[in-house]
Amino acid sequence: MSKLLRQLLPFASLLLVVILLSILAPGRFLTLDNLLNVLRRSSVNAIIAVGMTAVIISGGIDLSVGSMLALNGMAGAWTMLQVGGPSSSMLGLLLGTLAGIVVGAVCGFLNGSLITLLDLPPFIVTLGTMSAFRGISYVMNDGQPYNVPAYTYLGRGELALAPVSVVIAAVVIMAASLVLRYTPLGRYTYAIGSNRDATFHAGINVRRNLTVIYTLSGMLVGVAAMIATSRTVSAQPTAGITLELDIIAAVVIGGASLSGGRGTILGTIVGTLLIGFLRNGCTLLGISTNVQLIVIGAIIIAAVAVDQTTRKKAE
Description:
mainly alpha; 3% strand
């Protein structure tokens, strides 16, 4: 498969899904309300997937993003209630939002530090923190959610007639694209994923850069967690279960290689929208969530198979 064809495949797949759903559910799919609903739901995944893109390009992976989402939301909502009480004052809402983002950054820093300082595989570290973060989320309020009824703006508000969550996602996407393309951190991310040993011998601090990558990824999970909390006006300890499946699928479908060294933010966003439209279409057509999991799993396998076949032909 040529490089051009591989790059166009995610776009073609997204277009095909949109066309099929327009035919199968014409009166329900192609409506402004439904499209905005897909964009709102996809904004949370897109923000997390941006961070996951950098992680996978660097040759790593993060299985803890779903549990991290729950923990960050719980931490943010707890802060709101402690500062502003059940009515949640503006100060409480602001501090709670900041707390959720900071906890996300701390979780990401913990992942990056364990991976680099102890020289452990990212899969093992994030598998462990996935369980730990989820456990902390359950312990915080004995498995019960924190309700914050005043916290609606990020999830339901509008800015210049556009949903606030979509605007935030767009800003994150543009910023991440610029960082990966034009900054030393972006160049180092690709270099580490392509050949970590060569990058180290070139004088680049691999450990520090990997820690920064995981920290920034965790911070983005924190941003997404607060949007998700605002959408439901509550922080759920069960939030984000199996979310890592959708996030990794979106990044891989978008053309990133699980072996590292390749991937783009644009491709990831196409993959995110593809997953979003697939789930939305399945819901409109009455297809159960269990079948959706099968479809997403099959797509991941197919995407990785294409990547491995392409790599073997290139060798």
